[in-house]
Amino acid sequence: MTSTAARLLAGSFRSFTPSRATFALNRASSHRSPHQESPVAQSAMASFGPEPPPAKKAKENSWDKNGDTFNKVASSAAAERNRQPIADVVVPLLAHLDCGLVVELACGTGQHAAHVAPALPNLTWLPTDLTDESFDSVVHHTRGLENVLEPGVLDASDDAWPDRFHGSWEPPVAVLAVNLTHISPWQATVGAVRGSAKLLEDTTNGLLMIYGPFKRGGEHTSEGNATFDASLRARDPAWGCRDVEAVDALGSAHGFVTEEVREMPANNLMLTMRRRAKIEPAE
C-alpha cells in the first residue's frame, strides 16, 4: 500500500515546506499558449517555495469565441473521450506494483489522474503541468482521492527536474505524458525523455508512457492529423506532430526500450518505453 508519509503528502503538495521536501515549486514561463487542454506541454518538476498565485478563472461553462479558453473547473471533451483507452494501457502495466510514485507530465484538467489513479490505489499520483492555469480543475476532479497529490508546476525542459525528487517521495515507478509532444517545442520532449530516464535510473523496469498524435515514417497517419499539424505549426512553428521513430530513437539514446507502439482512438498512439537496468561497472 502507499506509505503513510505519501498519504500525508496528498492534498498538501503546493504548501510543502523545505523541511518536508528538498525542492520548491517554481512558476515557469510557458513556450506555448496557456489555454490549451494541457497548458503544460513541457511539464517537469521545479522546486518548492511559496504557493503560486491563484490561477485566473475562465469564463464559466464553455470555450471562448476562438476555442482557446477552457472552463478550468469543468472538463475537457478530448480527455473525457480518451481517458478510458489510456487507462486500458496504463493500469495493466502498473497494477501489480505495491507502491511507488507516478509522475504525470502535462496533466491538463486532471481528468486522467482522476480516472486512472483510483484503479491504482497502491501508487501515489503526482499531476504536474508547466503552469498552474488548470490547477483549479485538477483539484476539482481529483478531490477525495487519497493517492493523488495536489498538482505541481514542472518544466520538462529544465535539466535538473528529476534531481528534485530524490529523497522526497516514494520510489518513482512511471512517468505518463499525455498530449505533451505536439503542443510544445521539441526540446520539451527531449527534456521529458531525458529527465524520465534520470528519474527512473534506479527503478527496476520503470516505465515512460507517451500519448498523442504522431507521424510514422515521416507521414501523417490520417488526413485529420495532417490538418491538425498544420494548424499547430501556424500557431507556433516549434509545435507539431513528431515522428514516432524520432521519439523511439530519443528513448533508446537515454536508456529506454520501446516495448509497444499501440494504435489508439482518434489516430493517436501510445508509446510504452521501459527503462533498461543500469549496468554496474565491472570490478
UniProtKB/TrEMBL annotation:
Region Disordered: which residues?
Answer: 26-67
Family annotation (InterPro entries): DUF938 (IPR010342), SAM-dependent_MTases_sf (IPR029063)
* Highest taxon in the source lineage: Eukaryota
Where along the chain is composition biased (Basic and acidic residues)? Answer: 57-67
Please name one Pfam family that this protein belongs to: DUF938
> Which family does this protein fall into?
Belongs to the UPF0585 family.
In Swiss-Prot or TrEMBL terms, this protein is called Uncharacterized protein
